[in-house]
Sequence to fold (110 residues):
Amino acid sequence: MQITIRGHHLSITPAIEESIKTKFSQMTKHLDQVNSMQVKLSKDHQIDKPSRKGSSNHIAEAIIRLPGIEFFAHATADDMYTSIKILAEKLKRQIDRYREIHLQQHALVL
Fold:
């Protein structure tokens, strides 16, 4: 599986990259047909408002592509690690729902 990590208005540290790779590799280990995954991390720098606790200015977005289907999630939080965690949870729910529906359809065919 190919994971592309991009940063917008911030630099991707090795710790952030490792956090993303561990969370998403655990999530997709049961999906063999993952074509690609794109993760975009950004920080919203607003000049007119000072950054303070609760501003949710760290943004994480991800797209996971499988043959015939695409999963997308968007998460914001006070720090980047929290937004990555929320993003992983959202995508995990989508993938679990997809696998549940996919398994039900195969059970009906048999």
User: Anything to note?
Assistant: DSSP finds two helices and four strands in the chain. The chain has a mean pLDDT of 85. The domain at 2-109 is CATH 3.30.160.100 (Double Stranded RNA Binding Domain). The CA atoms of residues 62 and 73 lie 6 Å apart.
